[in-house]
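Predict structure. Chain length: 326.
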Amino acid sequence: MSSEPAHLPDVNAEIAKVVLPDDEAIARSRRVREDRLAFPPIYVVVGAYRLLSDPNLRVPAWKKCQHGVLRGAAVGLGWAFFTFEIQKKFIEVFLRNSPKVTGLSHDTLFGYQLPFTVTTYAAVVLLANQVTNILKFFLSKNIRIARDRAWDQTVLSRGKGPEFWQPYVEEWANPPQLTKRSWERWVGGYFGRFVIMRGLLLPLNFYPFIGIAIGAYMKAVGTARYLHKQYFAAKKMTDDQVAVFMEERKWHYRAFGFAAALLESIPIVGLVFTVSNRVGAAMWAHDLEKRQHAFASGDLSPEVHRRPTLTQDASDFVGSFPKKTQ
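Prediction complete.
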């Protein structure tokens, strides 16, 4: 009988095939990242999925907020129970006496018959917003802590430390010149948004989804900048660098901010999205930073770009993304 051992497979080689990414896997990962960068609103969806599916994100956020949610829900439900009929009656009088302002009747919307009266819908929307504000009051500091921890945990899950965030690198050979008009500063500020949303656009809140959508558009850029505040701080970017960086991705930030603000504007449930949007923003920041590394290392070179326009960006929604070569 032969004493030679039977042929065994090379275990190290087999492990290497499974563990070590080959060029095709790296290229595939890069294409996935580029696809996400090309359509930033997807980060809002991915952030919500990550928050709900990852216990490392979901459990700490809930533990930090659960007592405030329970107290706020008890007060909010009591408030809604005792004031619903009063508020409904007030709205009914307002709609009856202001048909030119609201353009609404009591049983139709855009000419379509509704299964409920418009006054009932308006009262529910008004109460839902009030309950949301009550929840915000009871959550207050804790939900801010939960958002910050969600960002930190998302970054940590990528295995990145503080050294990952490198100084800002310009990606355009001809960065845009910023000229912001005075009226844009006023409209974009808190007071301007408050006057427009709570005054001029108030009647639109009686229409399903219209008021929320317009409000989200007004808050889009501000929301996006706020969600990336930690990213800009980690890179130690100046105000001018932040302004140029966002202008170069003008429609990307507007689309991301619109999607985030739209979800956050949903009464009550929107509070959950204020946390999940921080998760999505951290994931977008990670991918943007990987791109910054490519420019810093010379793998990518600054390219000449036209001033970003909706027509230019909407054609393939890539904005500052370099065109792929065949």
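Summary: Residues 15-20, 314-326 have pLDDT under 50 and may be disordered.
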